[in-house]
Amino acid sequence: MIKIADKWDLIVIGGGPAGCVAAKTAAEKGVRTLLLERKREFGVPVRCGEAVADIEELTDFIELDRKWIDNSGNIGRIIAPNGLVLPTIFEHNWGVLNRKVFDYQLSLQAAEAGAVLRNRCNVTGLQRENGEVSIKYESSGKCFQIKAPIVIGADGVESRVSRWAGLNINLPLSEVTACFQYTLSHRNIDSIDHLDAYFGSKTAPGGYAWIFPKCQGLANVGIAVSGDNTVDRSAKDYLDEFVETHFPGASYLSSTAGCFPSRMLPKRIVADGVMLAGDAAYQTAPLTGGGIIWGMWGGKLAGETAVKAIEKDDFSAKSLTAYTKAWSAKIGRWHKKEYKVKQIARKLSDEILNKTASIINDIPLEGRTRGRIFQEVLLKGPGLMMKAVKAALF
Fold first, then answer.
1. Considering the entire predicted model, what is its pTM?
2. Cα distance between residue 231 and residue 229, in whole Å
């Protein structure tokens, strides 16, 4: 490994979408930026369903390219516990990405902007001393120590940077969602024009199962189960049963496991000389776990804040709270809304879900707006709304 400098303006830890965007954002402004990635290759292994709700939102960060977009469309289907299928039309086109290629392109953008990227670098410690953050890492069997006045931790939901910086928050099981996914080849994957989401206590308690087709005969099939429902049965157990039901005899091309925080941001995502971004800062949608675009916004805003901190030569937590405020202004309202919906949705019984699905099914496909659905549920099933509220509260 080529020896790198001992001191930098900014060190980014973690080379996923949040980390790469943070490094690119800072490097474009002339900041001497180093990005350390633990894995052997950017984007590998993939720990993601690879879907985004609005493909056009990615253009804030990268030009759309078919080489990393496996599939796109505007139809989604919700499948109720009793099997009732509810097609819906998305306001924007969704996309199923090839994260291996997508993440590689983001890392290339960061490098082209002037950031220095290093893979196979396992960060083992972080300590703030004399106004600088000291980082220790291992690579190729050797130990290194480098310094910078500011560090961005984009090292995922299991973030060690957050713990070292005193920002670690232990989540209760009810606010952690366990996930497992297979990429499957099967003859039943014969339609690629829609995404499917299955709900129900037997299928995915406190969560949902998904089928995200990548091309004819190939799809990401996964499941998300609330942590408090995995004490006696794992997410993989639930998924194996789901796959056996819908895709018997399927070929398994890959598998991945992980989790996401299904909660609001921690009270603190900054400390003296440190900011968190992406999953490390819980910048994921609490209901669905979608974190690609939100994480990239976290990286961009953290990178911009780092640039300003360097210009002012002020790396205090008080100064870096500008990042928290910027995140709240950009995404905060949507984050709060999704968290509230999650609190209600994950406690609804199959009975309520089935009755609500029946009411929605009577609404013409083109008229299934949120306002219309709310109106029809109140009109045709006034008791359902009260049951939903009681479920969320108790």
1. 0.92
2. 6
